[in-house]
Write a structure and sequence with these properties.
Elements lengths: L3 E13 L5 E9 L2 E7 L1 H4 L3 E8 L7 H10 L5 E8 L11 E2 L9 E7 L2 E5 L1 H5 L35 E4 L2 E13 L4 E5 L9 E6 L3
Antiparallel strand pairs: 1-2, 1-12, 2-11, 3-4, 3-6, 4-5, 7-10, 7-12, 8-9, 10-11
Amino acid sequence: MLPAILGTKIGMTHLFNEDGKMVPVTVIQAGPVYVTQIKTAETDGYSAVQVGFGDAKEKSLTWPKFGHLKKSGVGKNLRTLKEIRVDDTNEFELGQEITADIFEEGEKIVVTGTSKGRGFAGGVKRYHFSGQHMTHGYMTHRRPLSNGATGPQRVFKGSRRPGHMGHETVSQKGLKVVKVDAERNLILVSGSVAGPNGGLVIIKKGGK
């Protein structure tokens, strides 16, 4: 069984459990994905399965990608290709379709996505620094102050300064599958998931 699947974040909603408690959930369109390449320890040095997800126009594919998909026998133009490590590749075959039913309700998972980009941000927004005085004629309320030590005459690497915020790979742990709709390939995940609606996510089995 494939230990992970690709999907698209649709949005957030909520459900009510048996005790009447409201549970916030994220709806993910999980799959279907198609096996486009099988890598083994004998030929590649490790065992993995490459899967493709999402429809793409033929004109959007490069020639190498178009030939790779044609060789796999999938019969579809797929937008995203990802490798997933597996222990045994014997149960997989080229062109095989894998859907959301590989997950079960209550199963612990880890969801990886790309966080929203916030552009250039200051220290208050980026690192939650405290603002400065708001009264007595103080003119710059959110400006960073000292640049660091004066002895070395440089700014140390890793200093928390203004800069690019967001657009980073974030793995959200401690999540679980609340509900699986195998007919529509939908998975409802407890809590929030990094990224905008429509963003690509990877759902992996396991976690805390």
